[in-house]
Amino acid sequence: MSLDSLPPLREVIAQHGLGANKAFGQHFLLDLNLTGKIASLAGDMSAAHAIEVGPGPGGLTRAILAAGAKSLTVVEKDDRFLGALEEIGTASGGRLDIVQADALQVDEDALLPAGGERVILSNLPYNVGTLLLIKWLEAEPVWWTRAVLMFQREVADRVVAAPGGKAYGRLAVISQARCQVRMGLKVPARAFTPPPKVDSAVVVLEPLPDNERFEDVEALGIVTASAFGQRRKTLRRSLAQAAGQTTASAEELLTAAGIDPGARAETVDVAGFRRLAEAWRAAKTG
Questions:
Q1: Tell me, what DSSP letter sits at residue 115?
Q2: Whether the Cβ atoms of residue 278 and residue 219 lie closer than 8 Å to each other
């Protein structure tokens, strides 16, 4: 058996009785042309070890293997899909490893073979997509070299947002302080089975080099939570909560970071928030 000889996904779903589970935020991609385009965003995977979260019946799984990934590890919480995935594994020539687990709990670094590039590709379950992204962004040392991730369109917009717009916030700052990010592909709701109520989009992330990547995600998270928690207030006022954990006032932290205390959070670029996190860390008590 080869990948080309596998039955259409709709037949697989019918054969195994695989309906989407709303509790897991499942929406399936059955168009193999579309899944092929998503896999292509990862570039040359001939020497890469890939990992996919929430493969479901395996539409993107097939595309990743067809694109030539050296190996692929899939993490699937729902045991209903294991039979369909095992059939893909048989057709893959031993390149597929299936792990039944909660992706929020697994140690991906330990699951993947050492050496070579490590690529994350996933149509992320809607209910845990942002949590998984934050988990991967916070990983230190960084174990992955590229991520091709599908989110609800609103979340994707927040990852790639530039200062000045409504979408710009904590997720953009943390993502862009750690990675190069770009919008890869926009996917309409009708492409899914069952169709969700919103469109989706694929984001491509590549970790910045060690000397450019901001390391203190905790400090960055604290100052951005405070700054964006009250978006309509000036930073002089909204940063008071974060400043309360330091020996400095909000105004002193902002001045040290070269930021106008009268500005609002959405006008401050990523570099400004990096400086603010450094100022907060330097003044932190305890």
A1: S
A2: yes
Q: What are phi and psi of 50, to 5 degrees?
A: -105, 155
Closest C-alpha to 205, from 142, 258, 285:
142
CB 146 within 8 A of CB 42: yes
140 and 241 share a domain?
no
Cis amide linkage into residue 141, ω under 30° from 0: yes
Does the residue 212 lie in any domain?
A: no
Least confident of 7-21, 150-164, 209-223: 7-21
Q: Kind and range of the H or E element at 252? A: helix 250-256
Q: Which helix (H) or strand (E) holds 61?
A: helix 59-66
Instruction: Count other Cβ atoms within 10 Å, centred on residue 170.
Output: 20
DSSP string, 159-181: HHPPTTSTT-SHHHHHHHHHEEE
Strand partners, 179: 207
Distance of CA 91 to the CA centre of its chain: 28
Residues 183 and 224 reside in one and the same domain? no
- Which residue type, as a one-letter code, is found at position 142? V
Range(s) of the domain holding residue 14 = 3-207
CATH number of the domain to which 156 belongs? 3.40.50.150
Report yes or no on 49 lying in a domain.
Answer: yes
On whether both 225 and 162 belong to a single domain, the answer is: no
Percent of the chain exceeding pLDDT 70 equals 97
H helix intervals, 165-229? 170-178, 217-229
CATH of the domain at 225: 1.10.8.100
pLDDT band at 286 (very low <50, low <70, confident <90, very high): low
pTM > 0.85: yes
